């Protein structure tokens, strides 16, 4: 079995590669990643020498190179994690989001049609459903909730989802889609809420909380996401969408306070800053379908997962130290200087 993992040098893709080698050591895994600012080859150091692993520095928007690697490897499955993934960056510069997230997905699926695959799996997001009101805790996203996006990022992901379903209906491409809630865990790029707050707390820097901090996200430990995708690509139905989420809703401000307490610092580090434009209020997944059909349930409780994650950032300062001293520093200054000054 040869599996292409696109975006495998990023946060979830790399964790998925580790999970797959653990579960299916005999599979051949080819990681296709263009190594944008969010991709980090050092993350994959532990699998680089595995004879069943190949890394290919290719953009999914490069049709010729995508064709070439399909011709060389003839994958059985393609799992598409590659994306521009950060909402704030999409507000600053939408173009690259449409290019990578929509056109890149189309180029991959065209190659899948040309060479034939058993499965093309699209890793999507709960953000395609838009948001839920804060005062309706009874409401959840199901797979039939209408798409209703807020940001250029979520719109590009929704566009890709529609294209994937169109390739199923029009060309019979054997596809599946998963829409997961917010992930956290090792190797998450420090632009995202949890690693940003952990690192700033460790460094005694201000903690920029957008708006009132009352926005709610449904947090899932990354390994539980990987397990769900593994189940879907092997046992999930072709042409179907599966929501993934752990019924673990938390307000941003509560997460930030939890991190401060765990690290032993003071809440005076918190700074309420200008809100994100179009900021989604609340995400909450109803995971009944994946539970009923595939028996998936999340295994890691938030209180354990957040401890493990904080410990990982404490133990891997060199991984994030390199990131925050490079291009990311310019991004951070640009995004936060107006807000924090
Ligand atoms: P990430 O930003 O950490 O990693 C993205 C990876 O894709 C990087 O390695 C980057 O180099 C690579 N990439 C970007 N453009 C590429 C291109 N043109 N060609 C090849 N590779 C390219 O993202 P992540 O958080 O790991 O998210 C992975 C996927 O999961 C995304 O599709 C995202 O929409 C989805 N998702 C993320 C979350 C979350 O909480 N992080 C939740 C649900 C779904
Ligand atoms: O729900 C799934 C999505 O989760 C994925 O599709 C995205 O790829 C992923 O980035 C994530 O999107 P969010 O926008 O929810 O994640 P982020 O970590 O950027 O922000 C989480 C919440 O924290 C959000 O309400 C904004 C807030 N926030 C974020 C940052 C970076 C702050 O208050 N301060 C910050 O500095």
Describe the structure.
The protein is of the alpha/beta class. Helix content is 44%, strand content 16%. It is built from 12 helices and 13 strands. It has helices at 11-23, 63-73, 87-92, 95-115, 152-171, 193-202, 222-235, 252-263, 288-294, 302-315, 317-324, 327-340, and strands at 2-6, 28-32, 53-56, 77-80, 119-125, 175-180, 183-184, 207-210, 216-218, 220-221, 240-244, 249-251, 270-273. The strands form 4 sheets. Strands 3-2-1-4-5-6-11 form a 7-stranded parallel beta sheet, with helices on both faces. Strands 7-10 form a two-stranded parallel sheet. Strands 8-13 form a two-stranded parallel ribbon. Strand 1, helix 1 (11-23) and strand 2 form a beta-alpha-beta unit. Helix 1 crosses helix 7 and helix 6 (193-202) runs parallel beside helix 8. It is globular. It binds nicotinamide-adenine-dinucleotide and 2'deoxy-thymidine-5'-diphospho-alpha-D-glucose.
Q: Ions, cofactors, ligands: which are bound?
A: nicotinamide-adenine-dinucleotide, 2'deoxy-thymidine-5'-diphospho-alpha-D-glucose
Strand order of the largest sheet: 3-2-1-4-5-6-11
Topology pattern, helix = H, strand = E? EHEEHEHHEHEEHEEEHEEHEHHHH
Radius of gyration: 19 Å
Helix content: 40-55%
Helical run tally: 12
């Amino acid at each position: 079995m040869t599996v292409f993992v696109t975006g495998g040098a990023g946060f979830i893709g790399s964790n998925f590669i580790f999970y797959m080698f653990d579960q299916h050591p005999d599979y051949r895994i080819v990681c296709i990643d263009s190594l944008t600012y969010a991709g980090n080859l050092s993350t994959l150091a532990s699998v680089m020498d595995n004879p069943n692993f190949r890394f290919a520095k290719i953009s999914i928007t490069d049709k010729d190179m995508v064709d070439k690697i399909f011709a060389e490897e003839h994958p059985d499955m393609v799992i598409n994690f590659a994306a521009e993934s950060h909402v704030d960056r999409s507000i600053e510069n939408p173009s690259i989001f449409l290019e990578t997230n929509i056109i890149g997905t189309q180029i991959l699926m065209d190659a899948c049609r040309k060479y034939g695959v058993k499965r093309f799996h699209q890793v999507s997001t709960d953000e395609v459903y838009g948001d839920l009101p804060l005062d309706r805790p009874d409401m959840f996203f199901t797979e039939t909730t209408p798409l209703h996006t807020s940001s250029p990022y979520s719109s590009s992901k929704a566009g890709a989802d529609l294209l994937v379903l169109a390739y199923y209906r029009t060309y019979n491409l054997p596809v599946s889609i998963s829409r997961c809630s917010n992930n956290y865990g090792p190797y998450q790029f420090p632009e995202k809420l949890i690693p940003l707050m952990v690192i700033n707390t460790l460094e005694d820097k201000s903690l920029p909380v957008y708006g009132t901090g009352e926005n709610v996200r449904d947090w899932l430990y990354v390994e539980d996401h990987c397990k769900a995708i593994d189940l879907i690509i092997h046992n999930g139905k072709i042409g179907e969408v599966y929501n993934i989420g752990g019924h673990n809703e938390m307000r941003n401000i509560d997460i930030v306070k939890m991190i401060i307490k765990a690290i032993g610092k003071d809440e005076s580090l918190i700074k309420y800053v200008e809100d994100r434009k179009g900021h989604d209020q609340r995400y909450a997944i109803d995971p009944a379908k994946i539970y009923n059909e595939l028996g998936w349930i999340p295994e890691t409780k938030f209180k354990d997962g957040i401890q493990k994650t904080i410990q990982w950032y404490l133990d891997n300062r060199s991984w994030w130290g390199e990131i925050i001293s490079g291009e990311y520093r310019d991004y951070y200054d640009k995004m936060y200087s107006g807000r924090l000054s």
